[in-house]
Amino acid sequence: MEDCDDSIACDALRLDCEVCYRAVFEAVPEPVLLVDGQGWIVDANPAAAHLYHRPREAMRGQIVGSLFVDPSVLEGLFENRRGQLPAGIHLRQDGTRFFAEVSVSYIQQRGGSLAILLVRDVTAAREAVIRLEEAEERWRFALEGAGDALWDWALDSGEIKVSGSFRAIIGWPDERPLQGNEIWPERVHRDDLRMAIAAFSAHLADARPITEVEFRLRLEDGSYRWVALRGKVMQRDAGGRPLRMIGTVRDVHEHYLIEEREKRQQQELERAGRLIHVGEMASALAHELNQPLTALRNFSAVALRRLEELGAVGERIREPLKMIAEQSLRAGEIVHRVRGLARKGGLVTAPVALNEVVRDIVRFTEFEARAHAVQFVLDLAEPLPAVQADQGQLEQVLSNLVKNGIDAMRAVPGERILQILTRPGLDGMVEVAVTDRGEGLAEAVRSDPFAPFVTTKPDGVGLGLAICRTIIENHGGRLWVENSTVRGTTFCLCIPSLAG
Questions:
Q1: Which letter does DSSP use for residue 63 in this model?
Q2: For 18-39, what is each residue's pLDDT tens digit?
Q3: Rounded CA separation 355/85 (Å)
Q4: Sign of the C-alpha dihedral, residues 273, 275, 276, 278?
Q5: How far is residue 34's CA from residue 29's CA, in Å, rounded to a whole number?
Q6: DSSP code of 223?
Q7: 84: Cβ–Cβ under 8 A, 6 or more apart, which residues?
Q8: Residue 374: helix, strand or coil by DSSP?
Q9: 3-class secondary-structure state, position 81
Q10: What are residue 496's phi and psi, to 5 degrees?
Q11: 252: buried, middle or exposed (CB in 10 Å: 19+, 13-18, 0-12)?
C-alpha cells in the first residue's frame, strides 16, 4: 500500500510540474524554441509562432536550421554548449527576413538533452544603428566639407580617432595612433590650459550641454595655432559616467591674426590722433615761446654791451651771459624746427660732426650733471666721419638720452658715471652709445621703451624716446636699447655717414 501511495504522489508531482512548465512556456513574451539533439524543434511557444509567422503545430518536428539563412551557425550546438549564437538573418514562412540574436541554455531529459533557444528580434535596433551610422557619416561629410576637422574620443580607453584634416592641422603622421591626452592637455598652450580644462570639465560633469572653447594648439614643429573646439558626450554608462565624446576642431588662426592687426591699427590710429593734437599744441607753444626767447637774446646782448663799458669789473659774469645768449639762440632754433615739424616741413640737413654735437650737449647739461653728482666720461673716436643730418634734431636726441641717463642715476648710491661713446659702425654707419649706471629700465617700459605715452616719470608725457626714434629713422638710422640690467642701461643710435 505504501509503494502505491508513493507512486501516486510522484505522478501527481510530475503532473503539477508539467502544468507549471507549460504555463510558463506559454506565457513567456520572448520567442522560445525547444530543440533536441538531432536539431528537430520539439516545441515552440506562441511568441515564436508569431515571430516566424508559422503555426505551432507546423513548427513542431521541423528542422531548426530551416529558420536560419545560414544554418551553419548551429553546428556543434550540443557539443560546444555555446550560450550565444552569432547574430544573423532568420526566415519567416512567407519568405520575409529579420535580424535576430539567439541565447541558448540546456536541460537534461531522460531521453537526452534539449536546447532552449531564446530568440530576440533586433531588426529595428539594427536598422536604427545603421541609420545612426549613416547619419554620422553624413554629418562627418558635411563637417569635413565645411572645413571642420573631426575627432572621436573613447574616454574609457583614452584612444582618440581624428580625421585627416585634424592630422593636417597639427602635422601628425597618418600611421601613428593617438591618445586623447597627447592632444589635450598636452598640446594646449599653458596660458589657455586652465580655460580649456574648465570647458571640458563642465561638460563632462553635465553642467554644460556642449564643450565650446578656443585655445592655441601646439603643432609638430613646435609652433602654435588658434583653434576653435566643439565637443559633446555621445555615450554614458548606467551611472552617468561619460564613455564617448565626439566633436570638431576648426583652424581660426587667421581670424586671430586679423583681430590682432585690427587692434594694432586701432592703437596706431589713436596714437596718430594724439600726435596730431600734440603737434597742434607744439605749434601754438612754439609761437608763444618765440617772443620771450627773442627778448631773452636781446637782453643778454644788451647786458654784454654794458659789461664792455665796465671793463674788467664785469668779467666774472661775461661767460654766463654768453651761455645765456647761446642757449636762447639754440632754444629759438628748436622752436623754429618744432614749428616746421608741425607744418610737415622736410629735414634741413648739412654735414654734421657728431663729436662736436656730443661736446656741445655735455657743455649744455654740465650744470644739471653737477647738481646730481654725475660725471661724464667721453670715448670719442677720432677721426669720425661726418654725417648728413639736421644738427638741431640730433642735439635734441642726444640731449634727451643724456638727461634720461642723469635721471636714471638720481637714486643710485656711490659713483655716478655717464659714458658717451662714438665709433664708426658697419655698412658706412656712425654709432653713438650713451651708458648710465642706473637701475635699468622699469618693468612698465621694458618691453617697448619707445612706445608713445608710456612713462614712469611723474612729470613725463612719454613722448621723448618716441620722438627721438622718429628723428633717427627719418635720418635713415636706427635707435635701440643695447642692454638694460640692474647695473645700467645703454642706448645706441646709428646714422649713415657721408663717407659711407
A1: B
A2: 666 677 788 788 999 999 989 9
A3: 100
A4: positive
A5: 15
A6: -
A7: 101, 102, 103, 104
A8: strand
A9: coil
A10: -65, 140
A11: middle
In total, the chain counts a number of residues equal to 500
Q: Cell numbers at residue 37, please?
A: 539533439
Is the N-terminal amide bond of 496 cis, ω within 30° of 0? no
Q: Tell me if residue 257 falls in helix, strand or coil.
A: helix
Cell of 319: 661767460
- What's the helix, strand, coil split of the chain in %, to 5? 50, 25, 25
> How far apart, in whole angstroms, are the C-alpha atoms of residue 198 and residue 204?
10
- The 10s digit of each residue's pLDDT in 422-459 is 999 888 899 999 999 998 888 778 778 887 766 666 65
Other C-beta atoms within 10 Å of 399: how many?
19
Is 183 within 8 Å of 249 (Cβ atoms)? no
**Phi and psi, residue 382, nearest 5°:** -130, 130
Give yes or no for a contact between 243 and 155, defined as CB atoms under 8 angstroms apart: yes
DSSP H helical segments within 246-353, as ranges?
253-310, 315-342
Residues 6+ apart with CB under 8 A from 392: 330, 333, 334, 337
Element (H, E) at 225: strand 224-236
Of the candidates 20, 21, 93, 88, the residue with the CA atom closest to the CA atom of residue 50: 93
